[in-house]
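4.2 Preliminary Data

To establish feasibility before requesting continued support, the project team ran the inverse folding procedure on a target of 143 residues. The structure was first converted into the token representation described in Section 3, and no sequence information of any kind was made available to the design step. The complete token record follows.
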């Protein structure tokens, strides 16, 4: 029997009590799940108070669904969550061309695709290199 959960408000941080209400679980269960699921890492502030972000509330609802509604074990839910996270990362990763551009390494090709540059044209390569040097200098000015 699924309990209808309230909608998640559009705020940045939620206390453990708010998350407990939004996800229909007790606060001690949330603290236990933090130990079992590596994806749950709420920010801790004054007095070790936990503050969850919206994506963590969504993750807790997924965990709750797997454990309570679908009957998964903790280990099974952990595996399923890891699969979801990996699939989500893969879907966000830019797709690389199967044919590498001439005179370009893997990193150059990826960066060029991210900035919509053509490595087939000299100005595209020069523009990409200058942008990468600028970023490198921002990260480590001693180089």
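Position-by-position output of the design step:
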């Amino acid at each position: 029997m699924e309990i209808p959960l309230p909608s998640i408000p559009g705020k940045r941080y939620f206390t453990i009590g708010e998350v407990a209400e939004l996800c229909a679980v007790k606060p001690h269960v949330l603290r236990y799940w933090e130990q079992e699921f590596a994806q749950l890492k709420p920010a801790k502030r004054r007095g070790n108070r936990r503050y969850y972000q919206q994506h963590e509330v969504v993750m807790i609802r997924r965990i709750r669904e797997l454990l309570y509604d679908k009957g998964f074990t903790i280990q099974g839910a952990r595996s399923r969550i890891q699969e979801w996270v990996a699939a989500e990362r893969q879907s966000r990763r830019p797709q690389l061309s199967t044919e590498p551009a001439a005179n370009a390494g893997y990193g150059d090709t990826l960066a060029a695709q991210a900035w919509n540059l053509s490595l087939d044209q000299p100005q595209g390569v020069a523009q990409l290199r200058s942008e990468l040097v600028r970023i490198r200098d921002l990260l480590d000015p001693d180089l």
